[in-house]
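hey so u asked for the seq, here:
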Amino acid sequence: MQLRSLAAAIAVLAASAPALAQEAQSESDTLNRLLACRALSDDAARLACQDEHLNTFAQATETGRIVVVERRALREVERESFGLNLPSVGRLGGLLRRRDSEEATEVAEVETLEDGSTATYNASGSLDSLVGVPVSEVSMRGGKLRITLANGQIWAQTDSTRLPRISSRAVRDGLTADIESGVLGAHFMSLSNSQRRRFRAERVE
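ran it, structure tokens below
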């Protein structure tokens, strides 16, 4: 196991929800003590320190008190849950982002996904938007749009913005959706056939 990779790719999770904060801090200390060994200048002392704390860390992972999560896997979870109110996902992302906070910059990071859409993350690592997501179905319910994305997410219009009816041909021709996070948990969507008409939407599935 490479010590260098631990700082960039590990989130420490506690299994017990009622004591999540205290347990996460305790398990973070397990990792921090291991990483602190690098500061020892004496080779013998550094090796002894690493042996001691690496053994503790290994025991914690084997018993499930510490779970190793790759950044790629975390981001996939965040994208799949985008728009849903899932506090556990937010805690998971927050733990990893605190580890990365020293590397955060003011420049947003953009990731191109397999379906051709792009995901934009802010400086703290939070998912801000999904752009160009393929749409698989659009329907009208009570005069408001209901959009099913090719990734399986279903979104529903929640405001009174008047939008044109979308034909099945438009969907087949490659209709896409852009979704942005707003304040207080709000989300806004626009469709590629009328990008100037942004409307408020919520994730329903």
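Confidence is low (pLDDT under 50) at residues 1-21, 98-105. Residues 43-62 form the longest helix (20 residues).
lmk if thats what u needed
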